[in-house]
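Hey team,

Filing this mostly as a record. A colleague (T.K.) asked me to run one chain through the structure pipeline before their review meeting, and I want the input and output archived in the tracker in case anyone asks later how it was produced. No errors, nothing strange. Just documentation.

Input sequence:
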Amino acid sequence: MKKMIGKLGVTSVILIAMSMSAQAKEKVYKLKMATTWGKAATPLIDTAHNLSKMAEEMSNGRLLIRVDSSNKHKAPLGVFDMVKGGQYDMGHTASYYWKGKDINTLPFTSMPFGLTAPEQYAWFYHGGGLELMQKVYSKHNLLSFPGGNTGVQMGGFFRKEIKTLEDLKGLKMRIPGFAGEVMAKLGIQVTNIAPGELYTALDRNTIDALEWVGPSMDINMGFHKIAPYYYTGWHEPASELQVIVNKRKFNKLPKDLQTILTTAIRVSAYDMYIHNYDMNATAWAKMKKEQPNIKVKTFSKEIMDAMKKANQELRNEMSAKSPLLKEVLDSQDAYMKKAREWTKMSDYLYLKDNL
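Output structure:
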């Protein structure tokens, strides 16, 4: 430094230092995000784009996130591995897709007969859920954050009416996550098909039934034109998507950009929840008018009781094998026990008395 001062003078050195500091402050960080969703999968893909836009605006252009839909990277169910391996820095997907890699990831999307969306968000941010999610994903060199909720998902489209447990046996159905395990226990042949292939699979009789989301997204997929029996939900009362981030990449970001990124994730997730709610209401009104042959059904008490029994048996079996899964499920159960009393007093009794 003394030699530099001697050659250039104090004023010149100060100006160079100031310039270097300004350049450091204005350094642009670029991230790549892979999504499980195709470019037309509104509002899922919109959430990733909204996140990117907010991050860029809040950082004044210092944090840029390129969003690649599954149409580009061609691996909708490969997002976990691509982010873990560093091929992508981030991913927008759903945690329960990774049950084959780590069974502990299952509960962070939704569990059958579990928390509703408001209850689940409260658990994530005030009941220890977010900390447990980081505990599960840390061993994969990943961070995971709530990435948008669909609310209660419908129980699926079926080609034929399901009246008894016997009607389920041998049925081929696309249904992921823990609910798929439950259905398999009841005799269904379960498969997990990427979103972009669902309509073709149903149309070609590769599957007999499928669940996707709800009216907001189902209407554009056209499932109701092939399978007119539309069953109400039980399996995903609060389907939370996720944003996964490569931990090494996250740690290289300046602290302010880390905060901007996590804030953009949280806001875009909530925006998806309310956007999807409005889309559901609008789409269902249209579906009822344009497709009067859609038959909304609820599974019988016999079937629901069998589902609950299978669900509890599977929970017990899996919890016995994984102490960490048991810790997550116990945490959700404890929070639901507390929160559900308020849900009953508020939403349930209000609706019960005003429908």
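Quick notes for T.K.: Residues 27-149+238-278 form a domain with the D-Maltodextrin-Binding Protein; domain 2 fold (CATH 3.40.190.170). Confidence is low (pLDDT under 50) at residues 1-6, 13-23.
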